[in-house]
Amino acid sequence: MGVGKSTVGPLLAERLGVGYRDTDDDIVAGQGSTIADIFANEGEPAFRELEKDAVRRALGEHDGVLALGGGAVLDEDTRALLAGLRVVCLTMDVEEAVRRADLDVARPLLAVDPRKRWTELMDARRHLYEEVATVVVATDGRTSDEVTQAVLEALALRDGPVRPYHRSRPAARRAPRQAVRGPGRPCPLDEPTR
């Protein structure tokens, strides 16, 4: 929730020399509605289905940094798709989250009592983030450039140097997890946003 994926993701992609994509942007573009409007008009279950489809498509099509909404990990199939990929979980404490989220009113799950709701969401989701995360990077008190550098360093320490990766797509459908394993491969950013 305001942890910085939309700022850090493009910076990370630039540093790695790869593209950036955000599944929330894909959903908005595909639906012609904001996420808040989708939640209000169609409900959270409908949004989660759109999100699941957006993540699956993006993992199959995109070779760079992929940002996911924080609720994406709620889906078991999505977590299975993320298994074996470099997944970065950006975190912050509740006070920082509320301060940042208050600046962005388009967060439907934080509309009422954001501090309490953020804490509830994190308590419910934390184990899922830990399940899929390759590395966890705290954003508290850091600039976007500092967070980007921390992500690169954390990934390099865990898996060796992070290098840009480009693959050619075969004509046949491929299994995304198999095609994107290993150093320098796409880094889905998973942020607790929605």
UniProtKB/TrEMBL annotation:
Q: Which GO terms describe its molecular function?
A: shikimate kinase activity
Q: What is its EC number?
A: 2.7.1.71
Which positions are annotated as binding substrate? 24, 48, 70, 125
Q: Pathway membership of this protein? A: Metabolic intermediate biosynthesis; chorismate biosynthesis; chorismate from D-erythrose 4-phosphate and phosphoenolpyruvate: step 5/7
Question: Which controlled-vocabulary keywords does the entry list?
Answer: Amino-acid biosynthesis, Aromatic amino acid biosynthesis, ATP-binding, Cytoplasm, Kinase, Magnesium, Metal-binding, Nucleotide-binding, Transferase
Catalyzed reactions: shikimate + ATP = 3-phosphoshikimate + ADP + H(+)
- List all Basic residues biased stretches: 164-176
List, alphabetically, the CDD domains matched.
SK
What does the record's cofactor remark say about binding? Binds 1 Mg(2+) ion per subunit.
What does the record give as cofactor? Mg(2+)
InterPro entries found in the cross-reference section: P-loop_NTPase, Shikimate/glucono_kinase, Shikimate_kinase/TSH1, Shikimate_kinase_CS
Q: Which domain of life is it from?
A: Bacteria
UniProt-listed Pfam families: SKI
Annotated compartments: Cytoplasm
Region (Disordered) spans which residues?
163-194
Q: Which residues bind ATP?
A: 2-7, 107, 142
List positions binding Mg(2+).
6
Keyword Hydrolase annotated:
no
Q: Does the keyword ATP-binding apply?
A: yes
Q: What is the similarity comment for this entry?
A: Belongs to the shikimate kinase family.
Physiological role: Catalyzes the specific phosphorylation of the 3-hydroxyl group of shikimic acid using ATP as a cosubstrate.
Sorted alphabetically, which HAMAP family does this protein's record hold?
Answer: Shikimate_kinase (MF_00109)
Oligomer status and interactors? Monomer.
Which protein is depicted? Shikimate kinase
> What species is given as this protein's source?
Streptomyces heilongjiangensis
- Taxonomy of the source species: Bacteria, Bacillati, Actinomycetota, Actinomycetes, Kitasatosporales
